[in-house]
Write a structure and sequence with these properties.
By secondary structure, the protein is α/β, with parallel strands linked by helices. Helix content is 29%, strand content 25%. It contains seven helices and eleven strands. It starts with a strand and ends with a helix.
Length: 278
């Protein structure tokens, strides 16, 4: 089963500086990596006054932090959105391999690479200090997961399959969707869990959720924004949160007036992780 989350494009709108926005994004990235989130969906909020720069910073920094360090200078030029990238905590997920001696690479090892074309032939940059021949399809500059098909001194790679990565957490994808309601209605084989103060205590949803997940491929957890919850966001789209039968208050006895989004993401995923561990 894959774990996905959905957050609004207004996720960082309550932060005043680019530095604070960047730090908040890194907290999202860290929480998602800790609890093995495979996809982060960023949805548009109707009538929201979100600056375009905020959305760009949100998507860029999230994708940057998911990228192994040895590929960042290749994939990311000097960008104003990454001004504070140097102070952000790395996620250190399993796909963030260190630069290694080519002699230590074994057959079936998997790394993230970028395709490079040299004299018409395809190679991949995978953080080994040398380009490695690539037997596969793709274009120059494309990020790809590769599996080593032969060892030193005749290193070669091919594209890693989904089966090769099965059982291993290999980071998250970042996707944008234009409408929360349309996105939720379009999901297939996915259990939706909406977090809301207007929902019932999560404990009352726990058994139902666990039972449903036995036949579902994915779990999508939906979060509201700093100023509007999911209920308000759906109302603006002409919909009601009551049409969803798994709406949960994850912090029913909170001692603060509000729970910040980054706190909600981390806390909710921790609760779900406890449930999954059972």
């Amino acid at each position: 089963m894959e774990l996905w989350i959905a957050i609004p494009e207004s996720a960082i709108s309550d932060e005043q500086t680019k530095r604070d926005k960047s730090i908040k994004i890194s907290q999202f990235a860290r929480a998602c990596a800790i609890f093995r989130v495979k996809r982060i969906y960023i949805y548009h909020c109707k009538n929201s006054q979100v600056e375009k720069e905020d959305l760009t910073i949100l998507t860029t920094v999230l994708r940057y932090l998911d990228t192994p360090q040895y590929l960042r200078r290749i994939l990311y030029t000097r960008m104003k959105e990454l001004e504070y990238a140097g102070i952000l905590h790395p996620i250190k997920a399993p796909h963030h391999k260190r630069v290694e001696d080519v002699k230590n690479i074994n057959i079936d090892d998997i790394r993230v690479g970028v395709i490079v074309k040299v004299k018409g032939a395809l190679y991949v940059e995978v953080g080994l200090g040398t380009l490695v021949p690539y037997d596969g399809k793709g274009f120059e500059g494309m990020k790809v997961n590769v599996k080593f098909t032969s060892a030193y001194p005749n290193l070669r790679t091919a594209e890693a399959s989904t089966e090769d990565l099965k059982g291993c957490y290999w980071g998250y994808e970042v996707k944008e969707v234009p409408s929360l309601h349309k996105f939720l209605k379009g999901t297939e084989n996915t259990q939706i869990l909406i977090t809301s103060r207007k929902g019932s205590y999560f404990k009352s949803n726990e058994v139902k959720l666990i039972e449903r997940l036995k036949s579902m491929r994915n779990l999508l957890v939906v979060f509201g924004g700093p100023r509007k919850g999911v209920a308000e966001i759906l109302i603006e789209e002409g919909q009601s949160i009551k049409s969803y039968d798994c709406v949960a208050n994850m912090f029913p006895f909170q001692g603060t007036e509000t729970v910040r989004l980054e706190e909600s993401v981390l806390g909710t995923l921790a609760i779900l992780n406890h449930i999954f561990s059972k």
